Amino acid sequence: MVILELESIDSTNEEAKRIIKKGLFEDTAILAHIQSSGRGRYGREWQSPEGNLYFSVALKNKYPLQQAAQISFIAAIAAKDFIQSLAPKTAIELKWPNDVLIGDKKIAGILLESYNDHVIVGVGINIASRPEGLDRPVTCLANYGKTPAISSRLLEEWLFFFDKYLNLWHKSSFAVIRDCWIKNAWKLGKQINIKIGNEKITGIFKDINDKGELVLESNGKSKLISSGEVFFD
Ligand code: BTN
């Protein structure tokens, strides 16, 4: 894996696309200390001041797209283990499909994109500060553990966990990743509200299936929810 460390960029996902366009010869991870146009899911902004981790990993896609989407679960589990290593006593949970939470507050998010036969795994982890002015609960590592300086060394620590779960996935199947994910699932077995477009559904979060879809029990029926435009609070 090649690691590039940049002082500032618009978005590491966009930089990954530019590199792929020029011809990517090896899997590449791009770390930026500052992003001027950091992006989250659903077209949201991802505030990116200095002190937090922003990076993207560009991988040649060897999988059908639906399978490639499972990499976002792998990235989230890797982020959980990584954060746990820096805050060993803190309970960390995974919110479907791929947010990382501490105490019901988001600390990390994943933006997976596919581009020219590649997968781009964008990861943002709030280390020194949390975003301001949001209507959603957010937190940062500084409230719970060490606040390491941002460096490629730190990214290598996340990559260690990412490689571990990626290998596990290659050797077996998504079922193993699902098992790791579900152990730390936020609100599993509890009532959740899901918003798909303008529709709101309330139900019990029963499981995730072998495709990574959320299994919701609503009005006595099982519904499968895929991770498109879904908000769940
Ligand atoms: C989300 O939870 O909405 C996903 C957040 C992803 C943020 C990261 S930061 C590095 C990479 N570059 C971006 O512009 N976004 C991702």
How would you sum up this structure, described in words?
- The chain has 5 helices and 12 strands.
- By secondary structure, it is an alpha+beta fold.
- It has 2 domains: 2-182, BirA Bifunctional Protein, domain 2, CATH 3.30.930; 191-230, Roll (SH3 type barrels).
- A hairpin with a 5-residue loop joins strand 9 (199-208) and strand 10 (214-218).
- Helix 3 (71-86) crosses helix 5 (174-182).
How are the SSEs placed, and which strands pair?
Blueprint: E1 2-9, H1 12-23, E2 28-35, E3 53-60, H2 65-68, H3 71-86, E4 92-95, E5 99-102, E6 105-115, E7 118-125, H4 152-171, H5 174-182, E8 191-196, E9 199-208, E10 214-218, E11 221-225, E12 230-232
Parallel strand pairs: 1-2
Antiparallel strand pairs: 2-3, 3-7, 4-5, 5-6, 6-7, 8-9, 8-12, 9-10, 10-11
Helix pairs in contact: 3-4, 3-5
Bound molecules: biotin (BTN).
Biotin is lined by residues 11-13, 35, 38-41, 44, 46, 54-56, 99, 109-111, 122-124.
Tally of distinct domains: 2
CATH structural class of the largest domain: Alpha Beta
Distance between the termini: 36 Å
The DSSP helix count reads 5
In total, the number of strands is 12
Beta-strand percentage range:
25-35%
- The pLDDT mean sits at 93
Which topology of the largest domain does CATH recognise?
Answer: BirA Bifunctional Protein, domain 2
Mind describing the biggest β-sheet?
A: 7 strands, mixed
The unreliable regions are none
Per CATH, the architecture of the largest domain is: 2-Layer Sandwich
The geometry reads as: globular
> How would you write the strand order of the largest sheet?
1-2-3-7-6-5-4
